[in-house]
Amino acid sequence: MEPEETKPFAFKLLKTDGMARRGEITTPHGTVRTPAFMPVGTQATVKAMYPQQVRDLGADVVLGNTYHLMLRPTAERVAELGGLHKFMNWPHTILTDSGGFQVMSLSGLRKMTEEGVTFSSHHDGSKHFMSPERSVEIQGLLGSDIQMQLDQCVRLPAERKEISEAMQLSLRWAERSRQQFEAMGGPAKGQALYGIVQGGDQPDLRVESAQKLGELPMEGYSVGGLAVGEPQDVMLKMLEVTTPAMPVHKPRYLMGVGTPDDILESVARGIDQFDCVMPTRAGRHGLAFTRFGKVNLKNARHADDPRPLDESSPCEAANSYSRAYLHHLVRVNEGLAAMLLTWNNLAYYQQLMQGMRDAIEDGRFEDFRLATKAGWAQGDLAPYVRSN
């Protein structure tokens, strides 16, 4: 019996509505419908969720974190155990980030040179070295479908000189990442390597980065270094100048973003993929996302409220548990609170993505955008008043 041929990585742009795009990414582990939100499985798990739950909510792809997985349990161990898909029981598409952001933000003392970054583990202080080549090697051992180049991310605000130097270094690292990716046979395995556009809040540097990255044979391109301290209007302005400079027929990924409003506005500016810890982290801290905006279940106003979060939601966490019960679980710090609210939040994010995909297909994205924002502006349900 002949082995099944590996599906090559591909992106098909199916429909546009203004700058908003609907498409499909094909990987050896399935199809990713775009615009796509990728739940974050930092340590090979989406916190407080079963893998099948995440899939049932509509997720086509999840994210794993190179920095955390290289430290524990190590990429070599994951490879010996059959790769990340098998290890975490997720037979669908996986994207891994490069680990660069975590090296810069989480690790202890670090020293960066042209070759890479030497850093101390935030777990035990052990010394490690991360280069563009090593990052791609780790991601190859993990076996992810979509991999990221190592880049230098600068927190904003920052001086133009620092932003420019980081952008230029990231371009050089992109070339080295690509060489390593091809040396490891990534394209033949149907895998993808994305370049990362840097340039901070400087429009001309963003355009230069996007144009020069576009000259490299990457399978996709990401926008990095946003949502790192700057106001939303600055982020959106950078997208408005950056996405037109990015290749049209390659997927575009905005890293680490964000709130539902950030995602909605970024799709309007031509972005296809997103990831963020916000829906899972918020769920673990008593905050729910709904079509009426955010609901803080810690608030005492919910203590006697028998109404669900949203009776019209198809998600059981949203339509079958009272606010009073959810408030109680949060107040007494029960694990079920994190499970139910994370479930609700990821469900809402996936409903938002499906709504945008449908709206783009029907040529009514702007109407959908305005209606969605009007729902958020309307606010949550009025406080419950018990009848006598």
In brief:
This protein is an alpha/beta fold.
Structural summary, described in words:
40% of the residues lie in helices and 19% in strands. With 388 residues, it is α/β, with parallel strands linked by helices. The chain has two domains: 10-276, Queuine tRNA-ribosyltransferase-like (TIM Barrel, Alpha-Beta Barrel), CATH 3.20.20.105; 284-378, no CATH class. Helix 7 (160-183) packs parallel to helix 8 and helix 8 (203-214) packs across helix 9 (232-242). The protein is globular and about 70 Å long.
Low-confidence stretches: none
Bin the strand percentage.
Answer: 15-25%
Number of strands: 16
CATH class of the largest domain: Alpha Beta
**Helix percentage range:** 40-55%
CATH fold annotation of the largest domain: TIM Barrel
